[in-house]
């Protein structure tokens, strides 16, 4: 049997098994050594291929698609430095628990360490940032090897999705010639073995005696908090609020918790805590007996300060799978159980909470909401721009937010709403790279995406717009251009006048209109809130790429935020508690 037939059967059965085990999308960056897999993926009728030329952009695109669909996505590139360009997105996927099947083509063993072109050491190259690595055997078509290649396809998907999801890597050495032959008989191996590998999984439920231990710790406690950080299970909201209602305790909801929006009961939601927990005196008024946290650590830094100061507070972190996401080092009881089921278990037990505790949080929240909604429509600020963006979003929207100031302004100005929307971000490693590509990948799911992003992050990943143009994805971008790193104006570095602009402010002085036109997008620059609302409403009705730019001043923006925080804190402290 020829080399080409052996190669074709081996690769085809691998690809077919991936499709049989639920892979629907594969993101491919063109290259020579990956030819066998690339052509076979495109040939398989159950798979949708996305061609993204730049590997760094491609990896973030796959990340966004997997994040939005909540399904693993395959990612394929050629050998050499192409594989290294995947690294930032793989780090983010590991940290944010997103399943990716990373397929790296490689030179065969005889061409390694001998100076062959595009040959680097790809063995375990992503280190601990992948959950599993496997060096694939050279292609053969014996019964045993075809079973082997199918088993590895199935195992890769299972490893990426079991427990806490994350990326896995399979490294494929291929000898030339590389072009498969799709005319061979029974290429997909259906006649040989019509069945697929299967994995059955169940839900983790806390055992009765473990539940009793938790309840004994909580017995007699009057001032409790539920905190929900970044997480993507929209169904969790109803379970959390049912528990909050049963116990009469407030829920601190992160902007990425999926709790601030939707039709569920939001009576007990506290969404403005980032604003009033900035004040030490107010934090001192809010000593909690216990905190139960779901999801990752919230975005809010004032909440982090608050938690660190809660010296005698019982702290519980609930994870669907084992994990350690508790950056304060606080003594914590980790609970490994399905979060919604755990909420239902707790809600069956009656707890006598202090009504004044809930009333205090709700009143502070109402005061903060009042100030955060006050805007002058004849001008525009970064905060009011985000408020207008949220108001403009259509029902069942996806909001993707960049990091640094973007996600923090979403934390401040995404107030509770009955609109159904999903809010996503790359909050694993919190980087500003790859954000445009990740949002484009989320839009590839078929749902329009609105991206909130700053100018530095937009600049970092402008080539992510190529996929938006190529596939005519529906992406609206609200570009907040403060000509540099706006978040540093809120940090101690802002007082270092000699170094600030060069090292931290880093102004770009770029006219982004030309970049948007380069990628075939619609561009609009607005100068007040009324014009912004009109531009966003128009963009929401258009197809393809629309970019609405708002230009602000970093120094003025920091002062504007501080003025609002001061007004909130002054009114709260003046209130008769």
Mean pLDDT, to the nearest integer, reads: 93
Q: What's the number of structural domains?
A: 3
**CATH level-1 class of the largest domain:** Alpha Beta
Low-confidence stretches: none
Biggest sheet: strand arrangement: 2-1-3-4-6-5
Question: What are the key terms here?
Answer:
577 residues, alpha/beta, Rossmann fold, 3 domains, six-stranded parallel β-sheet, 15% strand, metal-binding, MenD_middle, menaquinone biosynthesis
Protein model, in words:
The chain is an alpha/beta fold and 577 residues long. It has 3 domains: 3-173, Rossmann fold, CATH 3.40.50; 208-370, TPP-binding domain (Rossmann fold, 3-Layer(aba) Sandwich); 375-566, Rossmann fold. It is built from 22 helices and 18 strands. The chain has helices at 3-20, 35-43, 55-69, 81-84, 87-96, 143-161, 208-218, 236-247, 273-276, 280-284, 301-309, 339-347, 355-372, 382-392, 405-413, 435-443, 455-460, 465-471, 500-505, 512-518, 529-541, 554-574, and strands at 25-28, 48-51, 73-77, 100-106, 133-135, 167-173, 224-228, 251-253, 269-270, 290-294, 314-319, 333-336, 397-401, 421-424, 449-454, 475-481, 522-526, 545-551. Strands 2-1-3-4-6-5 form a 6-stranded parallel beta sheet, with helices on both faces. Strand 17, helix 21 and strand 18 form a beta-alpha-beta unit. It is globular and about 85 Å long.
